[in-house]
Amino acid sequence: MNKNDIKDMVRNKYSQVVKSPSGCCSGSNCCIPGNNINDVLNISKKLGYSDEQLKLGLGEANLGLGCGNPLAIEELKNGEVVLDLGSGAGFDVFLAARKVGPSGNVIGVDMTPEMISKARHNAASMGFSNVEFRLGEIEHLPVADSSVDVIISNCVINLSPDKQAVFNEAFRVLKPGGKIVISDVVRVDELPEEIRNNNEAYCGCISGAILQNELVSILNKAGFKNILVKNKANSEEIINSWNFGQNIEKVVVSADIRAIKPI
């Protein structure tokens, strides 16, 4: 498939999450939420969300998607401008909004219209005034140059067919000294052919993952410094729960990724 075909496949799959919670990629919590609140709660706890965070939007903004908690990697500050790449129904945006306060702002970008509509509805119903959701692709961000303090993302960049473009755009929109704070899936070995060529495994955040050293190279090429890629302590538990079999948890890992745009 070409890049546009991949984007269309992912967009269609994630629109199904909104329309029917059981309709997305079978087997992966990255893509398919649990069928009830307890499933979503259990998934989210594995990903590193606290009990306090999980009181917000469970089953509405929090659909149980992802492979980590980017907000556990870095403490946001009051007044900061935060950008969430692939913001879905808005859960991480709303958590970030509580951290940056009324003087801050959080922007969510997602390429799935149904997710944007759901996130805007959630923002209105929960009373958030310091958030906004923009329809767009993370390879072509609808965000001004040097306007963002922190970029967060949760298990989305692996889905992009052009990861260099994603990080080039991230570098462009960050202020000097700004940082990326990301949870995502990366590879540590080669995937079996049947998984590598499996569309369900792609939208399930497995076969689109790149090697750790390739990710570091892409970040360097984009201009980032102080790059850190660290496997989550319970990575195997997270990946294994996605039920792709074949010891996939030994091949791909859930990682915390940090880097800074130099001043």
TrEMBL record:
GO terms for biological process: methylation. Its EC number is 2.1.1.137. Belongs to the methyltransferase superfamily. Arsenite methyltransferase family. The keyword Methyltransferase applies. Keywords: Methyltransferase, S-adenosyl-L-methionine, Transferase. InterPro entries: Arsenite_MeTrfase-like, Methyltranfer_dom, SAM-dependent_MTases_sf. One of its GO terms (molecular function) is arsenite methyltransferase activity. This is Arsenite methyltransferase. Residues 77-223 form the Methyltransferase domain. It catalyses: arsenic triglutathione + 2 [thioredoxin]-dithiol + 2 S-adenosyl-L-methionine + H2O = dimethylarsinous acid + 2 [thioredoxin]-disulfide + 3 glutathione + 2 S-adenosyl-L-homocysteine + 2 H(+); arsenic triglutathione + 3 [thioredoxin]-dithiol + 3 S-adenosyl-L-methionine = trimethylarsine + 3 [thioredoxin]-disulfide + 3 glutathione + 3 S-adenosyl-L-homocysteine + 3 H(+); arsenic triglutathione + [thioredoxin]-dithiol + S-adenosyl-L-methionine + 2 H2O = methylarsonous acid + [thioredoxin]-disulfide + 3 glutathione + S-adenosyl-L-homocysteine + H(+). It holds the Pfam family Methyltransf_31. It is an enzyme of class 2 (transferase).
